[in-house]
Each structure stands twice: as structure tokens, then as C-alpha cells.
Amino acid sequence: MATATQLEASPDTESGVWWLDLGGVNAYLADDDGDLVLVDAGTPRNAGDIRDGIHEAGYRVTDVARVLVTHYDLDHVGALSKLGIDAPVYVGRADAEVLVGRERPDWRNHKGLLQRVTDPLVSVPDLAVRPVEDGDEIGGFTAYHAPGHTPGHTVYVGESPSVAFLGDLVRESAGRLEASPWAISYDTDEVKQSIRRVVRVAPDFEMAAMGHGTPIMRRGSERLRELANRLE
Questions:
Q1: Residue 113, helix vs strand vs coil
Q2: Which domains are seen in the chain, by residue range?
Q3: Is 160 in contact with 203 (CB distance < 8 Å)?
Q4: Is the pLDDT of residue 87 over 70?
């Protein structure tokens, strides 16, 4: 069962962001000016966990107004078709083409080949899939195209709540942010470029919410900037 943990923007302020720890991968809920937003959707076997987490946060599954997907991977889109939601799904354009079945991952790339192996486990969701471009505003969140882990990887940054949903651009380990590694990325040079670009163009944010690891609740943009400065 997923645990819905409300992140604290400050010691005495509730953030309106919930972390759904699915065991090895994260999903999130966010109150976007009264709209409930789901960020990423775990693996196919996490559907029940996500529904439980939504209930634990005090909502119903039918309250989900939209889904923000950071990228196409089995562990981020796998439960979309199993949740029982009726909401549009926003995905970076290149990954949206794969999610709806119009394109297949590039088998000539090691990560693309891995995605092809796991493709049969992902059902095309019977939901409106809306391609996202760099700079699009979706409710209170702005999308930043951040490729490298996947071609359509997208980061979503909001000001209220002050959070960046970073997907697999980075991961947290022992309190430290690290760039997505070669084994699970299309292009690690592009990953580094994307990290530097998000630091340069996105507004500052308190919470850094990544796909793997423990979310950072204070000075998230500073921690991402520290990572950018460490990159070669």
C-alpha cells in the first residue's frame, strides 16, 4: 500500500503536495488552485497503491482533474489505464507519440531497446493524451522540456505550491542529487544540458520532487544548482 506523505513547504505550512511512495518509484499529488493533479503513474501493479494513496490524502480517484507525466517509462505510465480516472494526460510531445502507440522507442539506442522490451506491459490509456511543448502552462505549472533520460522528458515547475516535479532527470541518494545515469538514459550529455537549462530558466522552487529517492523539501532549486555546478 502506498503511503501518502504531505510535504511541508515550511515547518508550519502545508504545501498541498503529497508524495506517494510506491516502493522504488514515486508518484505525487498536488493541489493546483483547487484542482487535484496526479504526477506520474507508477507501474501497472501500482494502480491499487495509487488509488489508496489518493484516498489517504483525503480525495477520491474521480477528483483527479489532470495527470502530468514527466516521461514515458514503464514505471511512470504503467498504471494510467488501470486507475479509473477520467482526466487528460499531459506528456512531452516525443514521449506522447510513444504512449499513444504512434511511435515506438528507438531500438538503436540502449535505453530505447529497454523500453521496447517493456512496451508489452504498458496498455495505451483510454484517456485524452495532450502533447506538451517547452514553455506550456498547464494550470499553475510550467513545462520545461528536459530531454536526455528520454526524448520527451519534461519537468513541471509551480510557484504555488513551490515545487519542481523533476521525473528522472535526477535521482536522490543519501540526500544528494545525481544526474540520470547512462544505463537508463538515451543521452547523458543531453541530461547534463537539461539540468543546466532548468537551473538557468526555471524560477526558484522549494521542493524538488524526483521519480526515485526521497523528495527534498527545502531549497530544492539550490540543490539542483549545486548538482549543475558539479557536472563536468
A1: helix
A2: 3-230 (3.60.15.10)
A3: no
A4: yes
